[in-house]
Amino acid sequence: MPFWVLVGYMITVRQLSLVFLTITALPFLAQGDTSIDDFLARLPAVSLRENGPQRYLFTCDYLYFALDGKLTHKQRVSGNYTRNLPEGKAKWDNVRIANATNFDDAFPQGDPQTYMDGFSYNPSTAGEFKTGFFAGFPDNMQTKTLVWDVSMFEFFAWKYFDALKLNEPFEIQPSDVSLPGGKFHNRRPVLTWVGVSKMNGKLCAVIEYQAFFNRLSMASQGQTLEGRSDYWGTIWVSLNDKEIEKGTLNEGVLLGFEIPGQPGKQAVSVFRQATFERRSPAEKK
User: Fold this and answer.
1) Which CA distances in Å does 93 have to 50, 56, 81, 245, 285?
2) What is the Cβ-side half-sphere exposure of residue 62, based on CA atoms within 13 angstroms?
3) What are 4-52's pLDDT values in tens digits?
4) Which of 27, 29, 253, 263 is found 20 to 30 A from 94 (Cα to Cα)?
5) Is residue 53 classed exposed, middle or buried when 0-12, 13-18 and 19+ CB atoms within 10 A define those classes?
6) What is the rounded end-to-end Cα distance, in angstroms, of the chain?
7) Is 35 strand, coil or helix?
8) What's the Cα-to-Cα distance from 92 to each of 52, 85, 95, 282, rounded to whole Å?
9) Within 13 Å and on the Cβ side, how many CA atoms surround 224?
């Protein structure tokens, strides 16, 4: 019998888990930690180190539902995001919006949003919720939301990293965020470091986030919409250089609005699914 097969019979599933965790923890144990418990007791003190521009593909699917639960149509908004450019800037390019009808319909390539090609700003001083930040943009919330979503990933990944403890929810204070013609009330975001995994060949902290029962109001295409948002997702943050290796986002939104000449309020239900994925320098746009 081959040796590795014999070992497989002898080691229990629990022991295998400990062996794997020990192997992945070795770089940290060698830096002074003395046990697996120490390794999981805290996240390492690591600063963000970005070696050159960092490129990502952000893709967000919007699923629009009638109140009876039937899908009316769907939309995909995607774009390339690059950060750590000269002067600390980030930029967007190849942003597209594609539409389809049914759940299983493939999205076409989509229409290019040329006004976002080369759109750049400094994420640390952007003021992306201030009037004038999106000068030259059409009245389209989806492309603005690309910028806001990425800002959220970076905020949740880095702002509270040093305060997180394994499996202990970390609650962020409620806040109001100004939107064009409206406001988003972030009721009570919660971050939880739930473990360690590997993404893109890097050992990463897995951070889950959630915020439920958030109030939302905004103006779009001549209408005022009001309702509720619930969102949650996961972020993989490298334990070596603190770079974001991947992020996911799910959001359910219920909005009410009035149509001139029709009694009462109408409603629309939207569900968003998004991924924020690292791209290698060799990948094409």
Assistant:
1) 20, 11, 7, 20, 9
2) 20
3) 333 333 333 333 333 334 444 444 444 444 456 766 778 989 999 999 9
4) 253
5) middle
6) 50
7) coil
8) 16, 12, 7, 18
9) 4
